Amino acid sequence: MSLVRRFQTVRSLLKTAGSRESSSLPFGCWRSYHSSLCHVPEAHGKSAYSRLYEGHSVNTHLLRSTMIAEFLPFMNEKRSATTQVKAPPQLQKTGAVRVSMVSPGFVYEPYALREKISIWRRCFTRSGWRRTKEDFIRELRSAYAIAKLRKTGYSKNTFYIEALELYKQINIQMANGEKKTIRKNVTERMYSALKNEIKQREAMWDGVYWEMVEPVVKIRTLQARLIGIDRTDLKKAFIQLTLEFLTKQKFEAYDAKGNVAAGDKNKEVLVRDIWVFEKSLFHTGAYWRLCGRIKL
């Protein structure tokens, strides 16, 4: 009888130990996870995830990551992963929100130099025929874009005057480090690039002198591209014109003591720049802005 009692005692102890081990597993402590998740937004000094992961093994870490990801969308008042955005009162009445694109944010088919091929190759080889077809399509796209632009009152001479003035303004603003004033003359993506260039220049030199000698040597249009944003409305489009500026410029850079660090303002240097200007064809009061620069 004593042996039977001892056997039953050992058996009950083993059952108790097994139940404790199973309750200590990650799958059996949902209440502890729930209480921890409810206090996630109140964590101070540490991230919510670091608070939850302290004092646990790698397996528990991975499991809690999964459970948090699955549980957060169902939290109501204390969730921090999602936010509710309300439309302005004037738009709530109409029940519609209009989104207007200010700029495509990229240069469509950037201009590149094309390899010159002979007339014999162009006329009597397959590669020449393919190249002729590509060149024809490129020219056709430019012609179509210019035709659409002319319907809005575009004038080549007027645009060249405006583009040259914009070219001068942006270069002067770059030399003076005018980050705020340069913003209205360029697109958002271009503004970020120019702002970084100004920071790099200010880290090297204390000041810069820049001047363009007039008249300019040459201005010409290299290509034109039309970017449509709505297939149902062809009027909603952006135009991009790639221009080549050949000008004489004077440049001089100074260090913190005012000494000349680079360049010479008494010497004229012939500079070739290829800039891409962009304009909306469907926004009221739209104007030309710099959207890209191309280096060949």
From TrEMBL:
Signal peptide location in the record?
Answer: none
SMART domains reported for this sequence: Tim44 (SM00978)
Family matches, as InterPro entries: mtLSU_mL45 (IPR051975), NTF2-like_dom_sf (IPR032710), Tim44-like_dom (IPR007379)
User: Which Pfam families has this protein been placed in?
Assistant: Tim44 (PF04280)
Q: Which Gene3D superfamilies match?
A: 3.10.450.240
User: Which is a Gene Ontology cellular component entry for this protein?
Assistant: ribosome
Source organism superkingdom: Eukaryota
Q: Does the keyword Ribonucleoprotein apply?
A: yes
Annotated localization: Mitochondrion
The Tim44-like domain extends over 140-295
Keywords noted in UniProt = Mitochondrion, Ribonucleoprotein, Ribosomal protein, Transit peptide
Main localization category: mitochondrion
The record's similarity note reads: Belongs to the mitochondrion-specific ribosomal protein mL45 family.
What is the protein's given name? Answer: Large ribosomal subunit protein mL45
The organism is Arabidopsis thaliana (Mouse-ear cress)
**Upper taxonomic lineage:** Eukaryota, Viridiplantae, Streptophyta, Embryophyta, Tracheophyta
